[in-house]
Request: fold
Amino acid sequence: MSRSVRLINSGSGQPLIARLSLAINPWTRLRGLFGTSPLQPDQGLWLEPCNSVHMIGMRYALDVVFVDKAGLVVRLVPHLRPWQLSPIVRGARAAIELAAGSIERLDIRLGQTLRYDTTEATQGAPHP
Reply:
């Protein structure tokens, strides 16, 4: 996984996840969350490009949100269990993996628009 950013509901501007990691190159997408501890409620992983995920080798369930290139939520997959495969989601550009129960807890719905934001994550950070 790479740097941590925030997941934002584009419509309301409300932050949903404070610690969202980006998997946007072949190595980080391949590794995903394999071998990691279960996600905390404020953690997630944005995989792009991605239109399906697998849970082979995983030890915990995830909620998966698929978005198109504009960030529009096109498919919700709650409680994807270890060793399961998600459907291939036509039109999806990215998958957002969240702690199981996050879709309901955060009230994520089809048709919402989500994005990641680096602004606050880097503001005030010391420069090496």
Summary: DSSP finds three helices and seven strands in the chain. The radius of gyration is 14 Å. Residues 7 and 16 are 5 Å apart (CA to CA).
